[in-house]
Amino acid sequence: MYPSSSDNSYPATSPSPRLSPIKYSRERSTSRPSSRTSLRAHSPSFSLDDPVAVRNQVSTLKHTIRHQQAQLHSLENIIRIGPRPYSTDLLDDNNMASTSTSPPSAFASPTATSTKVKRRSSYDVLQNLAGPESSLPLPRRDGIEENGIREGIPMNFGANPASPTSYKRVSSPTRTLSRIPVASVGNARALADEGQPPTQRPSPSGSTSKLSPIDPDSSIASSSSLIPPPSPNRRISLTPGGTTKVLADLQTGVVNARNALENTKAQLRLSQRSVAQLTRQTEDLKEGRERLRLENEGLNNVVARKERLLQEVLERARKAETEATVLKSQLKSETSTSKKALREMEASLSESTALSQKSEREYITLRDSMKGLIESWKQDTDRLREEMRKREEKLKAEAESVGKKYRLLVEEVKGVQGDRDQVKKLKEEDKKKGEEVEEMWKEEIERMKGEVARSARESEEANKTAKHLAEELARLRRLMQRAGRRSSSSPIPEEDAPP
């Protein structure tokens, strides 16, 4: 059975009711690695030859790709929907307006504020809510004057901040975004505080020290529970009291709405994370179910194959039993037939022994006769070899004499050919001389014609002799060929040999 991939990459952590959402998200970020950097552990029984393991690996890879794509889409949606950072010009203008409208006696000594517990800014809270891997643009207030009223941080407005009746006034976090002038809001708060009895409030430092510094719900509740008491240094405004109360109520409503919105956003993030975790767990469970289904199919196939093999083994056993009975009957019949065959073979063996003894005696007589024949045949072959050697020597001598005669005839034929060439040359010379002296020496020409005729007759005679010699040469060749054939076919008798 394959281990579930959720054990390796997505550990199942249930949110504890004792932890705040930010603490829970921090614990989960430390206990569970990010899906971008987490690697699913390979199954120890994974093999490239196993198709079930290959399919499981492919399904886990597909799940990882789908999860990363979903996370990418969610981050893109958060970036598109998320708030944009505030402009620095607007923050500087609001800070200048707040410092110009506030009275100088309203500021407390810096030594008294340094002893208070320092609150975290909204940027840190939002950064913890978004997580370390978030790329959302978060608003951040950088430009704060030294003597100005910082937004979102309560200040002491009393002559003696160390007195037990001192309290903090919480400024509106939406002061930079409100369209109402800051001076009128301050006067409206001063008029709204008229006629209210001073109530003893618990120290904010003690309450914040008991709460978690990273719990946004506790910080929001503490900030919303602080009701601004009547300011000792209030201004006298000429505006009616009802309008200032309405403005103060609207401002507190905006603060409460903003706090509720932040709470809902935090809860939404928690729910989205829990939903994402549950979807991952469901996908892991689906993949585990798919792997188990594939493994179950493989086991079913193995069981079916084993059953088929068992049936085949049983059929083979039945066939073997039937074949054993048949073989037993065949063994009985074959033993009886083999006994009969043994008796017949013993009789034939006795006959064959008698025949073998007779054949041995005949072999001995034949061997002695063959020895005599071999010796006589050897003597005949030796005598024939000697005769063949003598005839070969005689034929060689005759061939040498014929060769000499042939060479002489060839030389004579070459001499006749030289005479023929000489006659041709003489004809050409006679023709030239006749052309030169044809007109002048006619009588000489006639004499030369007679000589030419005579030379022609001589050449004819020479031609006749050459033809006669060629015929003689052909006849000699035929005689030599006949002699060669006779020597190869049968020995030539001595009286028929040429001289």
From TrEMBL:
Skewed-composition ranges (Low complexity): 31-40, 97-115, 211-226
Biased composition (Basic and acidic residues): 139-149
Keywords: Coiled coil
Renumbered residue ranges of the record's region Disordered: 1-48, 89-240, 331-359, 478-499
Highest taxon of the lineage: Eukaryota
Record carries keyword Coiled coil: yes
Coiled coil, from the record: 247-330, 374-405
Transmembrane annotation, as ranges: none
Segments of skewed composition (Polar residues): 1-17, 162-177
Protein name as annotated: SWI5-dependent HO expression protein 3
UniProt organism field: Crucibulum laeve
